[in-house]
């Protein structure tokens, strides 16, 4: 549960694990374009990583629904708070759209989405070369948008950590300090307040 202004350990593990996977995917994507010799190996890596990110994004959304994020600091200007919420919505949308577009693109192109050498996901669209071309362009454009959103997200995180120092970065970077937790215990709802 996200309590005391910090994300819980599961939320933090999902966040940083997905961050590493997305960075790996970006490098794999660049490698697929830059190297013809490595392209087959990188494509075999790209597909299961993309589906893994789709599954993790759904798990993260469900976890966030059950355990809402800590509130933003009251001192944060209204426009920055609105921008933070909008950027998170855009990030989640891009994280879901990228693998779904890739899966749909390969389906339309008649290519199997292989997870392993003996297992492939079923197609989600019929074979259609025109649709394949459109989805390939969309996959690329959403990829650029996701990269831009990640850069914006990182810049905002560093702004909170180094300029504002308002605890927003620390809420995702680490859990609540034990010494602080011990000094400020959770109030017992069955204990009446002192007079």
Topology (SSEs and partners):
Blueprint: H1 9-34, H2 39-66, H3 78-109, E1 113-114, E2 120-121, H4 129-164, H5 168-173, H6 178-183
Antiparallel strand pairs: 1-2
Helix pairs in contact: 1-2, 2-3, 3-4
Describe the overall structure.
It is elongated and about 50 Å long. By secondary structure, the chain is mainly alpha-helical. Strand 1 (about 115) and strand 2 form a beta hairpin. Helices cover about 70% and strands about 0% of the residues. Strands 1-2 form a two-stranded antiparallel ribbon.
* N-C termini distance: 31 Å
Net shape: elongated
Overall pLDDT metric = 87
Q: What is the CA-atom radius of gyration, in angstroms? A: 21 Å
Encode the helix/strand succession as letters.
HHHEEHHH
The description of the largest β-sheet is:
2 strands, antiparallel
The class by helix and strand makeup works out as: mainly alpha
Task: Report helical residue fraction.
Answer: 55-70%
Walk across the major sheet and give the strand order. 1-2
Summarize the structure.
With 195 residues, this protein is an all-alpha fold.
List keywords for this structure.
195 residues, mainly alpha, two-stranded antiparallel ribbon
């Amino acid at each position: 549960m996200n309590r005391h202004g910090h994300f819980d350990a599961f939320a933090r593990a999902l966040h940083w694990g997905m961050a590493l996977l997305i960075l790996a995917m970006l490098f794999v994507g660049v490698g697929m374009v830059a190297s013809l010799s490595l392209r087959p190996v990188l494509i075999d890596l790209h597909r299961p990583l993309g589906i893994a990110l789709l599954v993790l994004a759904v798990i993260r959304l469900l976890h966030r629904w059950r355990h809402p994020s800590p509130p933003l600091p009251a001192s944060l200007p209204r426009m920055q708070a609105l921008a933070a919420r909008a950027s998170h919505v855009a990030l989640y949308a891009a994280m879901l759209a990228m693998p779904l577009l890739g899966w749909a693109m390969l389906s339309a192109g008649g290519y199997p989405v292989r997870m392993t050498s003996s297992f492939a996901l079923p197609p989600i669209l019929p074979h259609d070369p025109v649709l394949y071309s459109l989805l390939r362009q969309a996959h690329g454009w959403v990829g650029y948008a996701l990269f831009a959103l990640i850069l914006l997200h990182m810049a905002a995180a560093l702004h909170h950590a180094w300029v504002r120092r308002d605890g927003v970065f620390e809420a995702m970077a680490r859990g609540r300090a034990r010494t602080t937790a011990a000094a400020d215990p959770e109030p017992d709802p069955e204990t009446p307040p002192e007079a």
